[in-house]
Amino acid sequence: MQSADENWDASGRRRVWACASHRSHTTVRKYAQYQAGSFQESLREERERGAAPPHAGALSDSDGRESGGPVKRRKSARMLRFGTNVDLSDERKWRPQLMELQKLPAFARVASAANMLSHVGHVILGMNTVQLYMKVPGSRTPGHQENNNFCSININIGPGDCEWFGVPDAYWGGVRELCDRHGLSYLHGSWWPDPEELRAHGVPVYRFTQRPGDLVWVNAGCVHWVQATGWCNNIAWNVGPLTARQYTLALERYEWNKVQNFKSIVPMVHLSWNLARNIRVSDPRLHRAMRTCLMQTLRAAAGTLNVVRARGVPIRFHGRARGEASHYCGACEREVWHALLVREHERRHVVHCLACARRLSPTLSGFLCLEEHHIEELAQVYDAFTLHRSAPLAAPVQIPSLVPTPD
């Protein structure tokens, strides 16, 4: 429990960026009891001190802003429980609540033809499904960018407030530099930035309060971190507008994640081919970026098949079942598309990418190759993916003016 613009180490004597937490599991019912009990306890403490009772959006009595300094903070420090990533994807359980979200405009809906993530074809929990976050004052979502730089929507159900910090996408490199300076991994670590240190480093910081009923739109690539200042519940999901900027940022992060050995939650190659099948693109920049991705991945898939055939590995057509999740390499966790190199390990068939398969066995001995699509079908999709030009407007009909002429 501490002030939103401060982060102290376990001793309470030094300000740091590292954000400490540990995982445990509970149910919505049990956390709601903890959440209500926390509020009742705060009311009781306020009465004992003879102060006016706080409203649901107020800071609790032990918030860091009321402490006299690091030493006092350490004495009153206590660990909080943050009910995070509650899955609301089951429409049988949450149908009335999910139906309420259909009232939102199309660009903000969980499922929409204009949302790239609706074209993935399978569930990505928390991205193309809704998640709930149940909070007590001081609950923190550490600094991060959304998975593959997709936009996100967060609605505060209330009754309390949340405080948000944000850094524009153009400055994410500066945030990463400071993470490195503090000995923290930008992608794998848990960190809570110091706004003053960011500004001194030339990184602008936005700060605002999200009140009950407020919808926050997190734009593509925005670095953000959030702290609850009251007892509240939030729902959130991701959206991918069909724009060149969104697609390019998602693809760039997809490639950078490979270099950083970080799993991309969104299978961008699989998504790109589904988009090529499902939509017509009229933006030349988006069309160029998507067509380049299709061309490179089709070439890579053909190259993998050539290597496999040259080593005498059997190839079988596997296809894709409706709603089947995308496949990732069991070793490096990169997306494996079209040509799945499968090997039995501990009675499980594990998918590998070509690089990891060759690392295990240069001759690919013991591997089987499964094809997800027919190459002819992929070639047809690629050829059919052309820039869509809307029909020109009809030329206006020229109506002759009636000008009186002399007899």
TrEMBL record:
GO terms for biological process: regulation of gene expression. GO terms for cellular component: MLL3/4 complex. This is JmjC domain-containing protein. Keywords: Chromatin regulator, Dioxygenase, Iron, Metal-binding, Nucleus, Oxidoreductase, Phosphoprotein, Zinc. Belongs to the UTX family. One of its GO terms (molecular function) is RNA polymerase II cis-regulatory region sequence-specific DNA binding. The keyword Electron transport does not apply. Its cofactor is Fe(2+). Residues 39-75 are annotated as: Disordered. The keyword Protein biosynthesis does not apply. Residues 93-256 form the JmjC domain. It is found in: Nucleus. Its main location: nucleus. InterPro entries: Corepressor-Demethylase, JmjC_dom, KDM6_GATAL_sf, KDM6A_B-like_C-hel, KDM6A_B-like_GATAL.
